[in-house]
Amino acid sequence: MIENLTVIGPGLIGGSLIRALKENNGVKNVTACSRNMNNLDKALKLGVIDTAIADTATAVREADIVVIATPVGAILEVFKTIKDQLKPQAVVTDVGSVKMSLIRELQAEYGDVPQFFVPAHPVAGTEKSGVEASFASLFADRKVILTPTANTDPDSLKRVRDMWEMTGAKVIEMDGEWHDIILSATSHLPHVLAYALVTQLSSMQESEDIFTLAAGGFRDFSRIASSDATMWRDICLSNTDKIREMLKSYQLQLAKMDKMLKEQDSEGLYKVFANAKKVRDAHFE
Amino acid sequence: MIENLTVIGPGLIGGSLIRALKENNGVKNVTACSRNMNNLDKALKLGVIDTAIADTATAVREADIVVIATPVGAILEVFKTIKDQLKPQAVVTDVGSVKMSLIRELQAEYGDVPQFFVPAHPVAGTEKSGVEASFASLFADRKVILTPTANTDPDSLKRVRDMWEMTGAKVIEMDGEWHDIILSATSHLPHVLAYALVTQLSSMQESEDIFTLAAGGFRDFSRIASSDATMWRDICLSNTDKIREMLKSYQLQLAKMDKMLKEQDSEGLYKVFANAKKVRDAHFE
């Protein structure tokens, strides 16, 4: 059991982590701080956290584990603020969707990623944000990816692994570079694509009819375009090269399909659609 | 109440229409035929239809309303087969996702869209197909779009409207051209985009990890890529120009976003994301 947990930025992810740990007797005291006092207040009122502390440095002093659950772009600043306030055995981890930018920032700042910092990414979420959207089962059977470096302390790694396993997640380890490639494909590119479609359609003169007449397919396809803008701006700014590479390859695929449309290539279109359906059906219900 | 209804191709849409009508005492006898004898057999065994007839021409002889629920590319052939077999007061309608290609085909074949043919499109569905995926509430609170022409008989139009209203759908009328523009934006383009993404990712060397590590966002985004390949090939071949126009404008939007990524345009990305979120949140839960 974690004696004292501090979550910095207890939104959908941080809040759900706390709820899952509490439900499984995995944590005793939860302290949180946030730039967003309104969200912090909600977290207290909902009983998700036990103590709210406005000052980040103060909030981590008793912590055994600190989870930085802010958007990617704020993690380094938070870490710099808390680093010298921590107890000797404290472990720090994050939940960011991009790992290499942070790893490189920490290396640039400290010569290496500090031993007690375990880069992590729970691959789970919804399009909602804020602590009021959090729920205990968010991580059940989901993957949590840890991307330790050569410098990561094995005991710190184990403590972060144990914490996530208590939420029902499957914890795996992976190289940070590989993580960022995989996530650019499964998550970052799709978000860019969905945001682009909603942007395009909202600027059309037919836009009112379009959104009124959209059915379930469009609702599901565009769901991720309801995700938090700050979070996704930060991800795009942090994993830019890999996202652009994915996007380039996607644009080539679109050009191929446009050619098939232009040439009325019945067989070609059928093959692409049938194969995509087969692949997707093999992986999802 | 419809005395005799014939559905040609009783899959997800045709089957759900029949179930909804039966649940609301909207139909007495349902006959169906299909090229897919396996599906026809299932429809009988599930009790969705009362009579299965293999021969299309024979299947419509007693019908008061005939619903052609085949993929778009097969509708004209079916209509040519049944036209001279119909009772004098029979009405024919379809459920295709593209309206102008059929309207033009009928005009080319008969000089005008026959008075008793009501072009229709229920804007509802799932990524599943086949009669076993059908359910009575599929059309509840969904839109059904009728695109009558100047030649459409008002009584035929009313009978098709009444039929769909019995399913709980909201029936609206619209110009066929406008319908095809709206649907290219809300449905046809998103399907092409989802098929393209699954195709791209499945061809990558990281593909196994990609599909294993994909989370809920990707599952929702790519759901429509599990749709029936024949149906979507036909739609792409029938609404080609409008889909290509939408695709072109989408590619321009992607190029704009790629430029923002390249230039690390933090403010620009935030604005696009925040605005898209606002628009989507305003239209969906």
CATH architectural designation of the largest domain in chain A = 3-Layer(aba) Sandwich
CATH T-level topology of the largest domain in chain A: Rossmann fold
Oligomer: homodimer
Helix-strand category of chain A = alpha/beta
Mean pLDDT of chain A: 97
- Provide a count of the helices of chain A: 12
Strand content of chain A: 5-15%
Computed over alpha carbons, the radius of gyration of chain A is 21 Å
Largest interface, chains and sizes: A-B, 88 and 87 residues
List the uncertain runs of chain A: none
User: N-to-C SSE series of chain A?
Assistant: EHEHEHEHEHEEEHEHHHHHH
Q: Give the N-to-C terminal Cα separation of chain A.
A: 35 Å
Q: Supply the number of structural domains of chain A.
A: 2
The count of DSSP E runs of length 2 or more, i.e. the number of strands of chain A, is: 9
